[in-house]
Protein: Quinolinate synthase
Amino acid sequence: PEEKIALKSRIRALLKEKQAVLVAHYYVDADLQDLAEETGGCVSDSLEMARFGRDHEAKTLIVAGVRFMGETAKILSPEKTILMPDLDATCSLDLGCDANEFAAFCDAHPDRTVVVYANTSAAVKARADWMVTSSIGLDIVRHLHAQGKKILWAPDKHLGSYIQKETGADMLLWQGSCLVHDEFKGVELDVMKAEYPNAKVLVHPESPASVVAQADVVGSTSQLIHAAQTMDAQEFIVATDNGILHKMQMAAPGKRFIVAPTAGNSATCKSCAHCPWMAMNGLRNLLHVLETGSNEITVDTAIAYKAKTCIDRMLDFAA
Ligand code: 13P
Ligand code: SF4
Structure:
């Protein structure tokens, strides 16, 4: 704990000295989330992270999350320096959607509007008409469907089929998945619900359909925290990365949060519902990048220019 206190106070001082701001996702270490909040940065879902980074006047942003979040920040603010605690922090959705294969998929379906999830590389975004995050995907696809558009969706198959079901849109789906959310199990969740009959079920839409079907609320990380805070219930079963529990507990003190089951029985599994790449962000590597200015995110200028169009479309729609 003493080392932790020292690391945190050094980080606070360096953020101030370098006029840098910390932008963190809800899945990263609780210490990083707290630091972001108390130093004037933000802790939020991926849509808010993008907006906050774009609008903040700081010349340097430290993005504590995964690579696509740093890339999005850079694309929206090419003049800013974007640093990340670990440049190898990626995402199984991004890894499972190779830009060349994706381009061939798009080429084969030129009649479709291309909508990609934020959890993709800049090169994939460069090929898209729209980027969406989990908080706004449903609204954007509903809007496109109302205009009679047929959609090509990538990469998350669960989020894609959830949106398809909700909107009735014609969607051709890439078959990617998130290695964390894909592990939540519908049958075991059903058993757990019987054990906690008063609990409400909060589900991130990257989870399988059998889990989403049992949700009281389906939403982005921010939307799930909001639900935990405002719903009239004392117990919640949560199907998303357990990093979110820190903020949920702060937002709704006194309420009880239980991680949804991820394996073959109804026992809660507190250690497995956690993204290995989000977990690469820590106090030590955060301090290191602040001290050295290392781990800068760069995005090829031509790719960034193209990718910006689909991100701006989403942000304009959200405004
Ligand atoms: P949110 O946009 O809901 O924060 O989701 C990002 C993510 O990576 C979820 O796994
Ligand atoms: Fe990607 Fe899943 Fe990790 Fe989110 S939790 S960053 S979707 S691997």
User: Anything to note?
Assistant: The CA atoms of residues 218 and 279 lie 24 Å apart. The mean pLDDT is 96. The chain has three domains: 2-90+278-298, 93-178, 181-259. Residues 93-178 form a domain with the Rossmann fold fold (CATH 3.40.50.10800).
